[in-house]
């Protein structure tokens, strides 16, 4: 273009000339749930491990942010949501289709009501309608400057100005966003690590009362899971006593802290199930007596009773008070009550959940998009909302009142017993048989805990935010003990110990001890004062206490305990800390001088063992006497012998069972981790050797070895502790990797071990079934670690800190990582790659000469041939050569260099894992590089020298290895190739990030290298393209993508390589704009690819994808297109690109896309076809539909190009263009591609586009026009309704998916994996689900949620959608219009207009045919008028067909209900007439076209409104009258005449409107209208087509086909007059084989029509191609209608024409269709269905003209009489009122005089086709007996006395034969009856007919192949069965017993006798046949049959053998030959027909 002038550099600057410091390192404070973070107690010197833990939990997150992200980044693109209000700026577009809905409704109802008077009216109004005076109407306002003289140029300029105003700037903001499925460039931001909370339940205790209130009671609540037999929460203690009772204990409660007064608790359940119970235990103060005795009063007394009871209660109360004062600090068990939580956790979800309990941790979800673990966590965030499957969805708050308590059994207090009770309780829900119950009431409320519950305390009693000060009772969070592992790393300091005394056995203790309690204390020394106040208190007391007493079972020497002692562990534990247990006997009765407590023993448990926290089950011995000094150092089992010796119970045997459990985020409770941490700390801090670890001692010498061992063993630790301490473990390993350690004077290097350990951990985390992954397959825990937690290992811990020998490091000492030689085994591949420079050899090979700059970058690298390389650390002495590009003293390794090095030199399994989970190492590299750059303030240095060359080499190697890894995996089976996709994506993200950190030339080389390497390795094209596409798509989503592409350099000679920065470009190298060929800008040239690197690559992939034709390519094509579309969308939504000049530059960058799209034209999905189907009367069977709906099929291509045979120069057919024949694209892909095209056309420089067009050859221009043609149909407005439709489909889909989801979950694990895979494809296209919230894990992407959202759209949302899509349709069409204007102008300038104009018109006409907004129509009509003014002559001369279409479209808009549109359309139509008149006086033709258009309009669209059209006609008349220039010409008169004509056509429509509901009547009317146009072939043709269309809509395909055959005959008549070709049909005579009715069309004779008269027969169908077109359509319809034989007849006429044209392609097609037709005949045989016929007679004056008319109706096959009867009755019932219509039930002749004149009568009779005997010879096949029918017969039985049925001897029959006016099938479905004949059969003739029928049935059944025994037996039974009423025997007895008296009957008698003779013979045959067919069980039946047959034969014999002698003497004269002839023929017919049935 020009030189890089100021504008350009400004632009470049504005878009941020690739800012140097792209990444920002931020520290974000961790969010904390509590007001203060959880911390160890103050003032303690912590040991280093605890300090590290606490520091990890408290320190800020370190996050690397992109500074400019969100400018153009795709996240913005997803963010349609951020533009929530952008639709408010949109104008509402008005669409005709939407205004109709409201206006039409009222009109429709009036429709059918008029039917009653319809016929008299029609006759009357016909003349009147013509006179209907147009002038009486008021014309619409006219366009005032329509007739003003303006030069064409000026007119165009005004139009353009008008079009340019008020346009929507961002096209893609209107476009629905691309499918999320392809959006690989979204890297979900991992969830922040936070504390795990399960489903949270809030339990509020409201009251606890027994029938008598005599003493304080205490509740303690916990959750138990009976299936897992585990207590799953800590205890919650609660005091519900009234103050009066609480006062009893005043002396024992020193203080009451508010935290102990809580009455509501929040429980958390991670794994809900129906086996969870809430158990409430109730204790009371200790008193004398068994539990049963103490409970007795509660069972028998009631507070309410007066008298004695009251006294008793008072006495008890007093007693209780004294116990409280004396024994207040001791408790005893009392009662308990279980509550099942099944209802709370919705059972249905549970059933689904039981096999699925792993669900929360995502078992089985391998490639799972749903981060399932996080789900577990989200559940807690959301509390129990209904959004997930797990917790209850239907659960609101439940309030419970319980009235029965179970009494505690003193000997069954352990948890074991409790689980037994609960299991029983679950089974029978009552324990009453075995356990006593107490009456009482407990009220509580269970509800889902709200998200942020105010005034709540954590298990450590820390206040949770929000925490208002003034509340009295807090809520308490209760710690959960999950039944299975929960894999969530620790993020808060928690250090709790739970002690559970379980059982004590003092049975054998010498002195008596019965009421035993244990005092439990946590001691920090042996002195009694050392008891620490760290035990959590119970209810209504201090928060922390020093001691706790267990509850007492009265008089039990070996009690069970259920106490839980919760202790807050000190952060620093020492040898001295221990638990002390003191056992007491409590005397309940006050004895004189005796104390309450008597010590009966001691025991203890040291907290630490070998410096590790002791947890688990212990059975401790109990000492009887006071413990000796220093007892606590040893455990009680291993106390060394003392003097004096300790006395033990039972001689030092374990008698006290206890369990200790810790919940701690400091103590790992895992040997491997413990060892690792201990050794690390011994390195970091000054420790004295040897150190003790467990039971081994480690000296300084063995330290290195032990540490290496522990690093290697890390991965053997259990997964749970490893995950819990994941952050700390990884931090430590990374620290070891880079920190040189000096141990015992030697430098130890752990980096390889540390690295391998990290790799192993990464591997096991990814492989664990229980951990979730995101959609890119990244383990969520690791992803959050890298994103939030990882930071460079602390630099301050330097070498100097290390132990002895630190000073010994000499200045040049270097430590060796480990020689690269050890990697020899790895892959020779790697070592080879080291030979040439340090980078991959391919690079040097593939360098193009143009990449000068890159070459120089690469050659500047030091060539390092040594294949064993060390990583140095240098004490900066000057004589050491510096490794880095800039000399820099350094005393430590850099993490990123070390990591890259380790990745390169890894071998074997380690290496495999590294590349499998490369994403993790890539993200570590990036984050460490970003911090490194941040720390050294490198931003000022040029990027090129930020990182050492060796590091760059390593990166090159890594990328190369990963690429070959991807290629290798792709050829493997599916699972592996999925893996490859993930690696591919992570590599892309890596390079994407490097672009922000490293020199871009370097990164571009890596990209180029990747592409080459892949294509060398892969042979499957679609995989290759797909991989590279995803890769590029991610890179292109870079926020500086435009600058990376140097988009402002659109000149050919810009620097030829991807350049690292603008500043380096020499602006003088740009040549001037004029010299280069513009056309080149639209091609993907190699210069382009060099200059715009990424875009070039992307386009290359796209065009490769479009070119390819391999398996599965369509997915890839879709991917390619959506990648480009999402890029364009991101520009549209990028505020930096909103300036017009910037947009122009950007569009210039995408120009080659235009070339690609034009090349792929033949592959585009053709949106016009599917519409055409419903248009132009074209139909086809469904298979056809499938074939043609996709590609632009040949015919359409030809049709688009112009005439099929006589190709004029104007339309070069698409078929003749050289193009690739490739797979067609799907509709979505096509649509996305086209919107890209429109975007470029909209935003590119319009002058440039005009110049480009001007230079294009016409063939290319035609291509552009074809493209625009498709665009028009593609972006047609679909209206609001369709969005409703979508939503119902979506709903349906969502229901299916939901069902599948549930099913999958119920089926358990495997299915779930599948399901999750399916879920990877999100439904709906909600691209914009809100910017950042959901960009997270795309949480909401489960299939069905989205679809549902779709369903629940409010009206407002639907309106908004319609508003946006309306604007999209308008904008798209305006862009198309702009393009057409450009083409018109360019072609006008180039004087080559003739062949383009047709194309332009075609596009315009197409756009007028779509549903358009008024805005667009206004501009479109303006353009049309300009065209007419400019090229009028040419239009009317050359583009005749286009002109006809144009007339029709414009007329259609003249009938619009919107004034603006009507005004525009009238003006255009008037101008069209005017120009056609003045230019060549071609007005006659235009008149014809307008008239035909109107006729076809009227026939086709039922919703069209003649009122508006009349008004438009009036307006046109007004124009004609006001047109001054034309007054002198005959023009105004001709216009008036034309309008009058049109007006009369309109009157026909009014009538048609009335019959809208009565299809037969409507067809009759259309038929009549068509007949009226007998003299005007064009119009008759139009009406025949209208009829065909109506028939097709009603699925009467045969009739529709007949209409087209008649139309074709009409055309043939015309053609044969015009030219005499032997191959053409000779007028309508040639069509006789198709239908005898066609001869009607020959009425058009010379005197009526002279074909050369102007304007007559000028339609497109009056040509040979038109004729072929009509016949082909007819053949399609015949084939759909099942008349395959006719298809053959039709093609007999077509084939000679095709042969004459040598159109072999069509001939192939035709013959294949014929083959299909003949195949169908063979295959379907007798199964084909033809019509069913009914005679319908109308009687009654209400019917008007129809009165006494009779018709034969043709109904679809197998229509039953009731169906048609119901239909007609229903329809006429609507017209006349239901009471007024009556259906006459019989078929007897109707006597009019007996009918009620106020009613309408309909008589309906089933009729059958009737043939004379001679006809039957020709009508052989089933088809022939059902085709070309004009005679029908029905039979009416009667007797002489008027009854329909009587005795055999009096039963007569009337046969009625009807003849119709035309033969069926015809162009309508009912035909008038013109003749009726009746014949009467006498009783004996009836008998003869019946017997013949029977005999035929028998014959048929006997000879059937294959034989059918059932059928045969049925017929036999009817013939020989003994009791057959009116059976053969009776017939014989009635008619054959006597010889008739009347000689006339002799012959009949004889006939009947012969019939019987044959009948008996056939019966015999049948009986024999049956014998062969029967099975053994039917033998008896056969005997019976045979017997009956014998009897029948015997009875008939005398009658059959008796002959009438007279018959054999003279021949009697027969009268009435006619009659007998008929009778004869009947019988024949009957015989025939029954054979055929």
Describe the model:
The chain is an alpha+beta fold. Helix content is 46%, strand content 12%. Strands 3, 4, 5, 6, 7, 8, 9, 10, 11, 12, 13 and 14 form a twelve-stranded mixed β-sheet that branches. Strands 31-32-37-36-35-34 form a six-stranded antiparallel barrel. The longest helix is centred in the C-terminal third of the chain and has 36 residues, at 1355-1390. The radius of gyration is 49 Å and the shape is extended. The two termini are 84 Å apart. The N terminus and C terminus are likely disordered.
Overall structural class, as computed from helix and strand content, comes to alpha+beta
Percent of residues in β-strands: 5-15%
What is the total tally of β strands?
37
* Integer average pLDDT: 76
Please give the count of helices: 67
Task: Based on Cα principal axes, name the global outline.
Answer: extended
Pick out the low-confidence regions: 1-5, 70-83, 101-131, 347-394, 796-890, 1050-1076, 1171-1221, 1282-1294, 1300-1350, 1645-1652, 2016-2037
Biggest sheet statistics: 12 strands, mixed
Quaternary state of the chains: single chain
């Amino acid at each position: 273009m020009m030189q890089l002038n100021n504008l350009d550099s400004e632009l470049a600057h504005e878009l941020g000339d690739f800012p140097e410091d792209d990444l920002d390192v931020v520290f974000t404070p961790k969010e904390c749930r509590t007001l203060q973070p959880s911390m160890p107690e103050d003032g303690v010197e912590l040991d280093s491990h605890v300090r590290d833990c606490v520091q990890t939990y408290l320190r800020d997150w370190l996050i690397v942010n992109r500074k400019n992200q969100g400018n153009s980044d795709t996240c913005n693109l997803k963010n349609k949501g951020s533009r929530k209000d952008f639709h408010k700026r949109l104008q509402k577009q008005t669409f005709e289709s939407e205004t109709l809905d409201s206006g039409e409704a009222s009109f429709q109802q009036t429709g059918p009501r008029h039917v009653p008077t319809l016929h008299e009216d029609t006759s009357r109004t016909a003349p009147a309608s013509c006179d209907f005076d147009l002038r009486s109407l008021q014309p619409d306002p006219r366009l005032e400057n329509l007739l003003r003289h303006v030069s064409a140029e000026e007119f165009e300029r005004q139009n353009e100005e008008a079009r340019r105003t008020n346009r929507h700037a961002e096209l893609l903001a209107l476009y629905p966003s691309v499918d999320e499925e392809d959006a690989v460039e979204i890297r979900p931001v991992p969830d922040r690590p936070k504390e795990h909370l399960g489903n949270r339940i809030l339990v509020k205790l409201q009251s606890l009362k027994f029938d008598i209130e005599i003493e304080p009671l205490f509740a303690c609540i916990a959750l138990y899971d009976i299936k897992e037999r585990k207590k799953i929460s800590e205890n919650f203690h609660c005091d519900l006593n009234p103050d009066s009772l609480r006062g009893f204990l005043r002396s024992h409660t020193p203080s009451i802290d508010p935290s102990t007064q809580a009455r509501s608790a929040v429980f958390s359940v991670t794994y809900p199930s129906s086996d969870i119970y809430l158990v409430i235990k109730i204790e009371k103060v200790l008193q004398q007596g068994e539990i049963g005795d103490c409970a007795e009063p509660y069972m028998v007394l009631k507070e309410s009773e007066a008298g004695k009871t009251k006294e008793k209660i008072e006495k008890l109360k007093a007693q209780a008070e004294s116990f409280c004062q004396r024994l207040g600090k001791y408790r005893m068990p009392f009662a308990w009550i279980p509550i099942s939580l099944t209802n709370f956790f919705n059972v249905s979800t549970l059933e689904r959940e039981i096999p699925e309990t792993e669900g929360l941790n995502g078992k089985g979800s391998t490639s799972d998009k749903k981060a399932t673990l996080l789900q577990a966590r989200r559940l807690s965030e959301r509390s129990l909302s209904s959004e997930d499957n797990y917790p209850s969805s239907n659960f609101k708050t439940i309030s419970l009142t319980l009235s029965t308590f179970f009494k505690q059994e003193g000997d069954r207090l352990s948890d074991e017993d409790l689980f037994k009770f609960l299991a029983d309780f679950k089974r029978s829900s009552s324990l009453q048989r075995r356990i006593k119950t107490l009456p009482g009431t407990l009220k509580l409320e269970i509800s889902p805990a709200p998200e942020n519950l105010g005034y709540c305390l954590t298990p450590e009693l820390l206040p949770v935010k929000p925490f208002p000060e003034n509340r009295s009772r807090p809520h308490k969070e209760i710690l959960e003990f999950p039944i299975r592992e929960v894999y969530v790393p620790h993020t808060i300091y928690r250090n709790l110990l739970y002690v559970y005394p379980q059982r004590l056995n003092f049975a054998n203790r010498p002195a008596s001890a019965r009421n035993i309690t244990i005092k439990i204390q946590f001691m920090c020394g042996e002195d009694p004062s050392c008891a620490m106040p760290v035990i959590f208190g119970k209810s209504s007391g201090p928060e922390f206490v020093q001691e706790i007493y267990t509850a007492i079972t009265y008089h039990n020497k070996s009690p069970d305990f259920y106490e839980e002692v919760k202790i807050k562990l000190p952060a620093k534990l020492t040898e001295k800390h221990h638990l002390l247990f003191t056992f007491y006997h409590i005397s309940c009765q006050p004895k004189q001088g005796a104390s309450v407590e008597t010590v009966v023993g001691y025991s203890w448990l040291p907290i630490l063992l070998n410096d590790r926290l002791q947890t688990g089950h212990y059975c401790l011995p109990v000492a009887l006497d006071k413990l000796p000094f220093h007892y606590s150092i040893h455990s009680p089992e291993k106390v060394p012998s003392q003097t004096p010796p300790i006395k033990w119970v039972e001689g030092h045997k374990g008698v006290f069972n206890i369990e200790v459990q810790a919940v701690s985020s400091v103590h790992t409770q895992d040997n491997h981790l413990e060892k690792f941490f201990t050794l690390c700390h011994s390195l970091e801090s000054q420790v004295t050797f040897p150190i003790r670890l467990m039971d081994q001692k480690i000296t300084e010498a063995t330290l290195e070895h032990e540490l290496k061992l522990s690093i290697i063993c890390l991965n053997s630790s259990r997964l749970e502790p490893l995950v819990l301490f994941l952050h700390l473990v990884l931090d430590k390993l990374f620290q070891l990797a880079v920190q040189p350690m000096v141990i015992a004077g030697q430098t130890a290097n752990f980096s390889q071990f540390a690295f391998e350990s990290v790799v192993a951990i990464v591997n096991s985390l990814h492989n664990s079934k229980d951990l979730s992954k995101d959609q890119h397959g990244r383990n969520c825990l690791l992803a959050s670690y890298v994103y939030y937690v990882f930071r460079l290992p602390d630099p301050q811990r330097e070498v100097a800190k290390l132990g002895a020998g630190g000073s010994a490091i000499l200045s040049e000492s270097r430590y060796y990582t480990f020689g690269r030689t050890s990697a020899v085994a790895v892959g020779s591949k790697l070592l080879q790659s080291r030979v040439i420079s340090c980078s991959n050899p391919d690079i040097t090979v593939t360098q193009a000469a143009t990449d000068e700059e890159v070459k120089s970058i690469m050659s500047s690298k030091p060539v390092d041939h040594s294949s064993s390389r060390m990583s140095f650390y240098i004490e900066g002495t000057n004589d050491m050569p510096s490794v880095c590009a800039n000399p820099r003293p350094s005393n430590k390794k850099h993490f990123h260099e070390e990591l890259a090095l380790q990745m390169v030199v890894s071998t074997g399994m380690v290496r495999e894992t590294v590349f499998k989970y490369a994403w993790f190492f890539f993200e570590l590299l990036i984050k460490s590089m970003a911090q490194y750059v941040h720390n050294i303030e490198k931003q000022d240095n040029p990027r090129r020298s930020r990182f050492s060359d060796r590091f760059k080499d390593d990166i090159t190697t890594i990328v190369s290895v990963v690429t070959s890894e991807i290629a290798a995996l792709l050829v493997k089976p599916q699972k592996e190739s999925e893996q490859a996709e993930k690696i591919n994506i992570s590599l892309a993200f890596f390079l994407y990030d490097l672009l922000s950190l490293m020199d871009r030339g370097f990164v571009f080389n890596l990209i180029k290298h990747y592409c080459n390497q892949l294509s060398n390795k892969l042979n499957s094209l679609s995989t290759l393209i797909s991989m590279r596409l995803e890769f590029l798509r991610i890179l292109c989503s870079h926020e500086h993508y435009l600058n990376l592409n140097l988009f402002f350099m659109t000149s050919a000679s810009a620097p030829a390589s991807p350049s690292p920065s603008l500043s380096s470009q020499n602006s003088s190298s740009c040549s001037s704009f004029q010299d280069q060929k513009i056309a080149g800008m639209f091609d993907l040239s190699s210069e382009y690819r060099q200059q715009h690197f990424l875009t070039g690559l992307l386009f290359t992939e796209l065009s490769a994808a479009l070119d390819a034709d391999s398996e599965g390519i369509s997915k890839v094509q879709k991917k390619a297109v959506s990648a480009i579309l999402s890029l364009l969308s991101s520009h549209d939504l990028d505020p930096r690109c909103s300036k017009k000049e910037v947009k122009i530059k950007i569009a210039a960058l995408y120009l080659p896309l235009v070339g690609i799209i034009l090349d792929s034209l033949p592959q585009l999905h053709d949106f016009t076809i599917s519409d055409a189907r419903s248009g132009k009367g074209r139909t086809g069977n469904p298979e056809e539909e499938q074939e043609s709906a996709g590609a632009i099929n040949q015919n359409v291509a030809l049709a688009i190009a112009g005439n099929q045979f006589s190709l004029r120069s104007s339309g070069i057919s698409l078929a003749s263009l050289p193009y690739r024949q490739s797979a067609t694209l799907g509709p979505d892909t096509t649509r996305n591609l086209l919107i890209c095209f429109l975007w470029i056309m909209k935003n590119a420089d319009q002058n440039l586009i005009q110049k480009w067009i001007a230079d294009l050859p016409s063939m290319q221009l035609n291509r552009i026009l074809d493209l625009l043609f498709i665009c028009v149909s593609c972006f047609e407005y679909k209206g609001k309704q369709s969005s409703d439709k979508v939503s119902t489909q979506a709903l349906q889909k969502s229901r299916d998916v939901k069902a599948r989801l549930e099913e999958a979950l119920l089926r358990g694990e495997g299915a779930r994996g599948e399901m999750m895979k399916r879920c990877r494809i999100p439904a709906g296209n909600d691209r914009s689900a809100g910017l950042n919230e959901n960009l997270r894990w795309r949480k909401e992407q489960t299939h069905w949620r989205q679809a549902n959202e779709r369903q629940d759209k409010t009206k407002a949302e639907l309106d908004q959608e319609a508003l946006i899509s309306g604007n999209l349709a308008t904008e798209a069409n305006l862009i198309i219009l702009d393009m057409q204007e450009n083409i018109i102008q360019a072609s006008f300038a180039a004087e080559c207009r003739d062949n383009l104009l047709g194309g332009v018109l075609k596009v315009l006409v197409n756009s007028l045919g779509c549903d358009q907004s008024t805005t667009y129509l206004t501009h479109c009509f303006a353009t049309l008028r300009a065209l007419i003014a400019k090229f009028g002559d040419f239009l009317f001369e050359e583009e005749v067909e286009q002109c006809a279409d144009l007339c029709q479209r414009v007329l259609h808009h003249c009938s619009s209900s919107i004034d603006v549109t009507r005004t525009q359309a009238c003006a255009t139509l008037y101008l069209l007439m005017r120009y056609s008149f003045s230019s060549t006086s071609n007005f006659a033709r235009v008149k014809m076209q307008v008239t035909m258009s109107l006729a076809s309009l009227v026939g086709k669209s039922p919703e069209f409104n003649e009122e508006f059209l009349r008004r438009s006609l009036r307006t046109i008349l007004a124009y004609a009258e006001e047109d001054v220039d034309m007054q002198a010409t005959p023009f105004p008169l001709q216009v008036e005449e034309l309008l009058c004509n049109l007006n009369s056509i309109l009157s026909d429509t009014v009538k048609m409107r009335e019959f809208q509901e009565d299809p037969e009547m409507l067809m009759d009317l259309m038929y009549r209208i068509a007949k009226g146009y007998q003299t005007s072939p064009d119009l008759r043709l139009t009406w025949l087509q209208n009829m065909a269309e109506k028939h097709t809509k009603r699925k009467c395909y045969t009739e529709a086909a007949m209409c087209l055959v008649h139309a074709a005959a009409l055309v043939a008549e015309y053609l044969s007059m015009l030219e005499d070709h032997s191959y053409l049909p000779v007028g309508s005579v040639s069509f006789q084989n198709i239908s005898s009715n066609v001869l009607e069309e020959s009425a058009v004779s010379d005197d009526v029509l002279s074909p050369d008269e102007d304007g007559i027969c000028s339609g497109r169908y009056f040509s040979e191609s038109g004729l072929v077109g009509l016949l082909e359509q007819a053949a399609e319809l015949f084939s759909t209608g099942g008349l395959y034989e006719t298809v053959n007849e039709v093609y007999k006429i077509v084939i000679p024409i095709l042969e004459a044209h040598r159109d072999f392609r069509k001939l192939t097609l035709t013959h294949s269709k014929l083959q299909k037709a003949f195949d169908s005949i063979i295959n379907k045989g007798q199964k084909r269905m033809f019509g069913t016929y009914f005679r319908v007679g109308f009687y009654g004056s209400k019917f008007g003209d129809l009165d006494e008319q009779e018709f034969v109706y043709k109904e679809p096959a197998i229509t039953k009489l009731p169906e048609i009867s119901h239909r007609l009755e229903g329809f006429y019932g609507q017209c006349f009122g239901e009471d007024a219509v009556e259906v006459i039930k019989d078929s007897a002749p109707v006597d009019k005089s007996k009918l009620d004149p106020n009613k309408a009568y309909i008589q309906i009779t089933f009729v059958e086709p009737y043939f004379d005997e001679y006809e039957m010879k020709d009508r052989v096949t089933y088809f022939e007996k059902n085709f070309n029918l004009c005679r029908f017969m029905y039979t009416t039985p009667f007797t002489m006395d008027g009854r329909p049925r009587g005795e055999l001897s009096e039963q007569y029959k009337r046969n009625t034969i009807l003849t119709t006016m035309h033969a069926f099938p015809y162009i309508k479905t009912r035909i008038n009856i013109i003749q009726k004949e009746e014949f009467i059969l006498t009783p004996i003739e009836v008998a003869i007919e019946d017997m013949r029928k029977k005999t035929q049935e028998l014959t048929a059944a006997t000879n059937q192949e294959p034989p059918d025994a059932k059928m045969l037996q049925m017929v036999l039974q009817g013939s020989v069965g003994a009791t057959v009423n009116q059976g053969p025997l009776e017939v014989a007895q009635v008619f054959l017993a006597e010889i008739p008296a009347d000689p006339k009957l002799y012959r009949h008698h004889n006939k009947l006798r012969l019939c019987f003779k044959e009948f008996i013979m056939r019966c015999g045959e049948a009986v024999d046949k049956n014998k062969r067919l029967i099975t053994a069980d039917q033998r008896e039946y056969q005997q019976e049959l045979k017997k009956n047959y014998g009897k029948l034969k015997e009875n008939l014999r005398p009658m059959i053998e008796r002959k009438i002698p007279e018959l054999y003497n003279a021949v009697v004269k027969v009268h009435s030959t006619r009659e007998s002839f008929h009778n004869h023929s009947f019988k024949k017919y009957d015989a025939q027909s029954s054979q055929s049935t």
